[in-house]
Write a structure and sequence with these properties.
four-stranded antiparallel β-sheet, 11 helices, disordered N terminus
């Protein structure tokens, strides 16, 4: 059983998740007036092209002409993925215009429409289904604007239908939604995940004159891991907050390149130990860089108007919960296998080497804006 667990652990480290790609998001705003609801939906052209094949000449560039000739199809496709109900009756959706707008991550189609509800109430049920059948990582950030204020909703495949009461506070809902996204980001973010694993791998062994030796005592291991994880948490919380609140910002390409470099350096330190006694300091230093990466993901989701700190706190708590779950899963297995040659040579050395190769590929991709890996 111990050998089987070691093999499974090694496979888990050597196999890179294939879901790392640019986030897919859309932005929906429903503005309530006295007699109707006006809607605006910003949807990325790259996502619409993937779903509908808008790039007719297949040259990798979308022109206004290619979009204009498909306006009706785009409108029908997008609006058919939205249902708004008041009471037991669905509101009729009537499209008005389709425009283009530039966001920081590319060009978006802007669909404007109006909603006509037969029995207006203060309770609205929104059913959001855009792109969930094509991309499980797609997220929809929605706002309901009324005289009473702004209410935010974050849609995902697991939370595709939500109910909002106009004027009621959704603070807990906002906190939990962003916490869920924080967990999702740390678990699906391959670079952050592999950096954390690179820090955890040597936690149960020590480098001596005779090579790697198992650490005696679970308490010693737990204290070392707690110091590393706490340092990483404090560091990325600082830069996540500074960047998300736009106090300090760095170019995303620089941040992503530095994150790849941090993963590579952490893996190298496992293969050729340079820092062994103060790994928490390494975790803190590189955690500052990873915080800017987390902030980029939070910016992609968008901070809720009037609840910036709540959304930030929820996302950060989600990231921490995701990290704790990874540590809780990894540490007991690694501790039980630490005496085995297979752990020290295959899992630690082989896993670190695999992480290093992947990190170097990411670094080349991000520094030179190239496509090295197929995912």
């Amino acid at each position: 059983m111990r050998w089987l667990l070691a093999v499974l652990l090694g496979i888990g480290l050597l196999v890179e998740p294939a879901w790392a790609h640019k986030p897919s998001d859309s932005y929906l705003t429903l503005t309530m007036t006295d007699d109707r609801i006006e809607g605006r939906w910003d949807v990325a052209l790259r996502d619409l092209d993937f779903a509908l094949g808008l790039d007719v000449d297949d040259d990798g560039r979308l022109t206004w002409g290619e979009v204009r000739t498909r306006q009706s199809e785009i409108s029908d496709y997008v609006l058919s993925r939205l249902t708004v109900m008041m009471g037991s009756t669905a509101c009729a959706i009537r499209p008005t215009k389709t425009l283009l707008d530039e966001h920081t991550d590319g060009t978006y189609a802007v669909l404007t429409f109006s909603l006509h509800c037969a029995h207006p109430t203060l309770k609205m049920q929104v059913d959001y289904r855009l792109f969930f059948d094509l991309d499980a990582q797609h997220r929809g950030l929605a706002r309901v604007v009324s005289h009473e204020g702004v209410t935010a909703m974050l849609f995902s495949p697991d939370h595709a239908r939500q109910t909002v009461t106009i004027g009621a506070s959704r603070r807990w809902g906002t906190l939990l939604s962003y916490a869920h996204e924080g967990v999702h980001h740390i678990w699906s973010g391959s670079d952050h995940l592999l950096f954390l694993l690179a820090l955890l791998l040597p936690a149960v062994v020590r480098r001596g004159a005779a090579g790697w030796q198992a650490v005696n005592g679970l308490r010693t291991v737990m204290l070392d891991v707690a110091a590393v994880v706490t340092a990483f948490t404090v560091a990325h919380s600082i830069t996540l907050s500074l960047a998300a609140l736009q106090i300090v910002t760095l170019p995303s390409r620089l941040v992503e390149s530095m994150i790849a470099a941090s993963v590579a350096l952490a893996a190298i330190n496992n293969l050729v130990p340079v820092v062994s006694d103060r790994r928490w300091a390494v975790a803190f230093l590189f955690g500052l860089v990873h915080g800017f990466g987390f902030a980029g993901a939070l910016t992609d989701l968008g901070l809720v108007d009037g609840a910036h700190l709540l959304a930030l706190a929820g996302f950060n708590l989600g990231v921490e919960a995701g990290q704790i779950a990874i540590v809780a899963l990894f540490l007991p297995i690694a501790y039980g296998l630490r005496h085995l040659w297979l752990y020290q040579r295959v899992v630690l050395a082989g896993g670190s080497l695999a992480i290093l190769v992947l990190a170097l590929c990411w670094a080349v991709e991000r520094v030179f804006d190239l496509q090295v890996l197929a995912f």
